[in-house]
Batch of 4 targets.
Target 1
Amino acid sequence: MKEKSIIGLGLESSCDETSAAIVADGKVILANIINSQIDLHSDYSGVVPEIASRAHLENINIIIEEALKTAGISFYDLDYVAATNRPGLIGSLLIALQSAKAISFTLNIPLVAINHLEAHLYAPFLEGNELSFPFIGLLVSGGNTALYKVIAPGQMQLLGKTVDDAVGEAFDKVSKYLGLGYPGGPVIEKIAASATERKLIFPKILPDPGDRRFSYSGIKTAVINYLKSNPQCDISEVAYAFQERALEILVRRLFDAARELGIKTLVVAGGVAANGRLREMILSELRPDERVMFPSPKLCTDNGAMIAGLAYHYFMSGKFDSLNCDVMSRV
Ligand code: KG4
């Protein structure tokens, strides 16, 4: 007889997406409702923390109800509840975590507090890929750019991270200077693809091959300076040159780390992992004995499914959090 599935609710509100998802057995998504606040923040060319937390508060209950309805279950079918508690905007993080605590307390089910960065790297395993450790995880988003060796759930070794801006943040800032709006990633990718002149070259970022760090403030300044001295330039050419340099360092670091450590499985996740040119660059460098996993675009962005999915493994090994657990802006 088939055993009953373990059903988890995952809540996410660390930045500008409010999301609630229902996941069965850590791998089957029954519902993944995501409410993006992009429209609320686009006039400011970035996320305004106060606006974000207020919008999460207004939306979270509606989104939880919608997730339960979509999955065709009730609160009483839940075996555990999980929420992101780190890293992120404090006021925003509080909304999902406090909601999860209320649900845990009321239903008397375990609470699992999740590291959002670890959850991003779990996303491909919700789409039919077999979970296998160790892997090299490249996390590329609006708030983070980091490389990890992931050994098991809860065991991530940081190999390198950005010393200044995150890669998505650089896309957003460059987009703002090019007058292309927010979020910058998708629009820069699109306009870069239309560039016919591809001669412009920005300086290499941290060129030392032994270096595992990332940096994006220098290239951002190089783009701004170029635009100031060349006001009549073709912006598609600038977008192309910026994107090539911004992505190239990610690809180099990913493969250098994997090959030095002899690890053949690669996971690339976070908002910037949706970039088609990044995927193309990684696939063209991949050797036959290596495999790379990217989440589908919907799971690249912040979502509750990755929270519920990863939390399943904590739940199964009895790693729960107390109602006293807190939010953390950094990890
Ligand atoms: O993971 P995510 O949804 O959340 C935050 O970290 O906030 O990532 C959002 C980031 C933004 O900076 C956005 O510009 C970037 O991901 N992004 C992209 C693309 N789509 C989204 N960057 C490059 N190319 C894309 N296609």
Note: The two ends are 43 Å apart (CA to CA).
Target 2
Amino acid sequence: MNVRITGTGSALPGKILTNAELERLVDTSDEWITTRTGIKERRIAIEGEYTSTFAAEAGRRAMAMAGVNPEEIDLIILGTVTPDFPFPSTACIVQDILGATNATAFDLSAACSGFLYGMSIAEKYICSGAARKVLVIGAEVLSRIVDWQDRNTCVLFGDGAGAVVLEGSEGGHSILSTHTFTNGAFWNLLYQPGCGSRNPATDSRTIDERLTFIKMEGNDVFKHAVRAMEEAALTALDTNGLLPSDISLLIPHQANRRIIDATAKRLGLGTDRVFTNLHRYGNTSSASIPISLDEAHRQGVLTSGDKLLLVAFGGGFTYASALVNW
Ligand code: COA
């Protein structure tokens, strides 16, 4: 059984926050942000917009492309670290919005690797016969857990969602492999300390010490990210007996231009074979790869038979890869 991507979709907030506007919020500059990260602007959810808003819209667009009705979806997996609520799963809310009444739905917390972890699980559901049509979504409203007083982190992140429909098929383009990895030894280098059972939102200390916001050791994260993304990419290539020269397009998690460049360089891939859009969206965590895949597809960048290498890295640490024969 092959697992095919039959539809892609994405949804982003209309509101744009530029580097120039950030200069008025914290002690930073467009020049610093551009040279250190490659980011020029990011999308920010406005009042009344939630993770489920963008997740459902991305999912609706992916289903429309696939020609699949909501009732045909057997499973919804939603990668997110910014759910609408601690519970129920935002995937349940998305199931309701879409009318995907026959789908089992759950959230998956794997930070920026959430979408590829979700693809890996979906592939196994389909191959085992437990599901036929699966909606995998990565969606975030990170702007609600970003500390807008912390210049080390607030310049990096943005909001949005991307989705794919996966279906079983006897032929056609297919997912050749998925690999997921975890290194829990470094969980505290990138995390949100507050609002869980250790530092409850009900404890005034959680608010006073700004524990509800993302904390990150940027330098350390950077080094781990480059090494991990290379390992995930090489595992995908080795498994399929492919060389970097066989890859038509690398679609990496959009965290930082320098991480992407270093990963591509280690793999020997030129920039013409690397998809980037982080200059427009920043780091949208689990949403970044499906947004990129959808944009590449709708821009006509992808040709049948292309070998796509998707690679992610995120808090946990989690990292993952997928090799797709488009
Ligand atoms: N504007 C201006 N100066 C800033 C700044 C900002 N937005 N953020 C940090 N600085 C300052 C620091 O305070 C520091 O100043 P100091 O030397 O006076 O202390 C200086 O810039 C250098 O900081 P440093 O952290 O060494 O910079 P860097 O080159 O490592 O770049 C990151 C910082 C965050 C861009 C980089 O470490 C990074 O991208 N890390 C990975 C982050 C990431 O992608 N996380 C998600 C993974 S999924």
Note: The pocket of coenzyme A is lined by residues 28, 32-33, 36-37, 112, 151-152, 155, 216, 218-219, 221-222, 225, 255-256, 259, 283, 313-314 (CB under 6 Å).
Target 3
Amino acid sequence: MSRHSRILGTGSFLPVDVVGNAALAERLARDGIETSDAWIVERTGIRQRHFADASTTSVDLGEHAARRALDAAGLRPEDVDLIICATSTPDMIFPSNAALIQGRLGAKGGAAFDIQAVCAGFIYALTVADQFIRSGVARNALVIGAEVFSRILDFTDRTTCVLFGDGAGAVVLGASDTPGILAAALHGDGSQAGILCTPGRISAGAVQGTAFLHMDGQAVFKQAVHVLERVAREVLDAAGRTSADVDWMVPHQANIRIMLHTAKKLGIPAQRVVQTVADHGNTSAASIPLALDTAVRAGTIRHGDTLLLEAVGGGLTWGAALLDY
Ligand code: UT7
């Protein structure tokens, strides 16, 4: 009997501070930066985002999401033998967020490491965990996406600072006789690193260069609509399914226009697309597990549903996964 991996439980966690578009616009106006609720909603679909306070980190958010996912799976921390955290805003240069979360949970002994593939990070982490489980190296994996992008936003750059928010999501992926994850695909094109990056580096105890997020939004937009459709079709073909088999598309929540455009090209109706970008903004690697958990807890996604996950992010990196929930 072949070995598969499937999602046993989901969890998420958001910081309490909610900042609506109007409040953000007011804050930016104090520094002479002009934006509006109307522009943000029309161009992105975002209405609000959560921002962590100064003392809350991505490990804090990730730990809460992980505990909720474990509860939902009915597992204890000591049952976990692999922790992967997807993040571009870790607490420390090292050790990894995954190791720090492992320490908090008291889940010692298993492997723990971070994956840095920016907004595609959760798909990367899920795919790696699936490989570990199917090969027999791990039995129960915690796959976490946790971000505090507010820390790397330049609040004088209106083209980026209105887009992102903080949050975390997690799934427990466990070994199973039945799939589970049906197909996954990961891709990258490092020649496009410059269109979405946070180029600062640490040297001699200080940040060299800028540690603010930089994005050429239009260039990323063009790439996104191209690669997301292609990678979605790749996983559907690999699993011998079609878009008609997809009950729910759970895309990276960056921009409602990209999400719905991709769905339309795939022939997936908008009502079948999980949409949380209005409430969360773009939470990078956390966005898919956050959207997934939100839909699961709302009773929208049910056991047996076929889900199509897809994301693109800095790198560029992109990927998709098709799974039976
Ligand atoms: O998560 C990783 C992947 N990231 C993405 O998928 C993001 C991809 N890109 C996007 O979602 C979109 O390109 C944005 C939402 C970032 C921008 O939307 P757009 O429709 O591509 O707008 P634009 O960059 O073409 O800007 C249109 C206008 C410009 O003014 P002019 O040149 O037409 O006078 C901008 O200066 O909107 C202006 N603008 C703003 N106006 C008010 C840019 N940002 C703002 C703002 N408020 N916050």
Note: Residues 35, 39, 43-44, 119, 158-159, 162, 217-218, 220-221, 224, 254-255, 258, 282, 312-313 surround oxa(dethia)-CoA (CB under 6 Å).
Target 4
Amino acid sequence: MGYDIKSMTLEELKRGVEDLGEKGFRAAQLYGWMHAKLAEDYDRMTNLPGDFRKRLLDTHPLIRLELVKMQESALDQTRKFLFSLGDGNLVESVWMKYKHGNSVCISSQAGCRMGCRFCASTLDGWVRNLLPSEMLEQVYSITRITGERVSNVVVMGTGEPLDNYDNLVRFLQLLSSEGGLHISQRNITVSTCGLVPQMRRLAEEGMQITLALSLHAATDEKRRSLMPIAERWSLDELMEACAYYFEKTGRRITFEYALVGGINDSPADARRLSALAKPLAAHVNLIPVNPIRERDYRESGRLATETFKKELEKNRINVTIRREMGRDIDGACGQLRRRHLSEER
Ligand code: SAH
């Protein structure tokens, strides 16, 4: 199967352009229009011959997203976007403004089949994988709408990125490519619930991205109660894959740990988590769980959270508590899309 034109690498584009009877150098121009200047249609690509633009339009329609809804937080300047894909499927993306630059959180699939108990994105199951161009367009559309440069991209929206492996890697390469937005791979984070074989494969891609592992529990038993994927891969296997990733890439892993009141937030949990993080020099990111209507998980109290963090610090683990952003606008994964879908029904 061939990819759509916006998912093609520059090399593939060169061949495609030549197949259309044009000179190879047109490929770089076309690539620049799509991926650096973020042109929305061929009409704007003014230095390309008119008949070439016409042929492109007939043979290679450009993938675009349609903005369905935008919400801006009154608390911070976080904005949440709901986009419609060409086939009507909906995905959501988030734009966050930080002192050091703007960050975009994108979705990698429409729906998700991982089934994590606390997550809204998976409640309606998996619909389909997103194309590289559909992941890129989330970043591009937001750049066009806000008029501001994006410096960081996190693949932490709806979907399991490593369950859409080939499209993800292609997306990462296009996003960081010199002729495109050229976002530094060090400023890109991919978050996974822990698909062991794909984590190992990713380690071998020669990329400098940050891998974040959604750990959420430090024993197999607790992890299984929160995440079905833990039935497939044990913590031992997962930690071995993390060690392999660290060894191959030299990049420290981030452990994401959503604190759920009374479930995984005891000092003993913190000690077990320290023991997992220590040998990997992993960074631990504590996230207050964002309760969703469909489940009765609740946040850890302030004291439990502080005690948990102190316990990690005592063990010299590099730990941060994630600043919550956009909580007033359905900030947690999949909440906006889900609310929109149920309102439509
Ligand atoms: N599938 C990937 C990426 C998407 S989820 C993964 O599992 O990592 C992005 C992060 O948000 C994950 O760490 C996920 O566990 C977390 N998350 C999902 N629902 C949440 C909720 N209700 N509260 C807090 N964190 C949540």
Note: The two ends are 35 Å apart (CA to CA).
